[in-house]
Write a structure and sequence with these properties.
The structure is a homotrimer of 158-residue chains.
Chain A: H1 5-23, E1 34-44, H2 45-49, E2 57-59, H3 62-75, E3 81-87, E4 91-96, E5 99-112, E6 118-132, E7 135-145
Parallel strand pairs in A: 1-7
Antiparallel strand pairs in A: 1-2, 3-5, 4-5, 5-6, 6-7
């Protein structure tokens, strides 16, 4: 796999599309951003930096992502809220046979009914992205959040 | 109209230029980002998602934008503050005879004198952009904010 | 110096790389983003807009940046925290013999141990960037923050 301008824009678009789909509450689209045997983790920076395995969320296939979507939509009882991702431009770390490795900083704001927006999470995405017949997809997306504390719970994916 | 790399960068630049002009307090430049018969709305996500017409602000021509600028600068009495937009990369939804349809997530921070910055608004832009002799311009810019509550008032445009 | 698509992406990458290196706490990389005889300032918008000289930080060479890194890492006693920059796409203001002049809006979030993320600083970068043998580098980076108040101190660079 090589990096050219068109691929960079595809990469940028994957990041934007992912963020805006989640912010629209369009959870059913979420697993489709990943490959079949993907890895998605949501982990504190404290644990990531120490190489510790514990994650807040860890899904090891697209099927597990679909299960999470089912959980969020039909099982978990929680106060409704909107999310808003603002994500920096992705920075390409490496391009090789196993895809593009890239990272980007993010902030996710949460807005509950009749309340002001507040910071839900900040951190970075650390990704491995591969080219598939349907376009670029996440083979790995590690979400590493700066704040050890999570206000209440993380319900929708970051 | 077709989408190529150069057009994508023009689009990205329009978004950045718009945000930075407003953040500089350069309100006189604001109407110039729009076509003569543009539509600019600022609407809560709650109303937008239900298809309800009520907007916090609704302007249906460049002339109305100019009138708003006059109001902000010379009529409305308010506590002065600075704005800071941080806007995600635009995502192109469609390209056709009527222009580019695109969206982008945003957060706007407000800073008053002798106070810390706070979140004024988060949401997304939903736009229709056309090519004019002066470059890309907004034929429609719908600002859809996530938070139902507005802290005090929206004075300057988002 | 001319602006083409490849240069624009190099510019975008410089901005991202800078932000992510700082957020990773990788301060030793910081001086390397600048030219040998660079200028780095951190200044309130209030002073910048009035043309006043007083800056919160002002460094006039890469050697002074290295001295600051030494100070941050080995001298200043402070509560540890993580930073997270989210930076808008750069907007090119001018391209000439003295390099690229560009600006970008930013928000920097600060997260302390066992605490929620909070807004540390918002503002814009105003830059002059030159092409060197090692790629694009900052000849000048002026950080102009909107908020007059700084919560506690600025330790790590913005």
């Amino acid at each position: 796999m090589t990096m050219d301008l068109a691929t960079w824009l595809d990469l940028q678009n994957l990041y934007s599309d992912y963020a805006l789909a989640l912010d629209a509450g369009d959870l059913d689209r979420w697993p489709g951003f990943f490959t079949e045997d993907c890895l998605y983790t949501l982990q504190s920076r404290e644990n990531f930096d120490r190489g510790l395995p514990l994650c807040t969320l860890r899904f090891e296939s697209r099927g597990m992502l679909m299960d999470r979507v089912y959980g969020v939509k039909d099982t978990i009882y929680h106060d409704p809220y909107h999310q808003r991702h603002v994500v920096g431009a992705p920075r390409v770390l490496a391009v090789g046979d196993d895809g593009i490795r890239s990272e980007a900083g993010y902030v996710v704001l949460r807005t509950k009914r009749d309340a002001m927006a507040e910071i839900l999470s900040t951190g970075r995405y650390l990704d491995r992205i591969v080219k598939t017949d349907e376009g670029l997809r996440f083979a790995e997306r590690q979400v590493i959040f700066d704040n050890d504390l999570i206000p209440n719970s993380i319900i929708a994916p970051i």
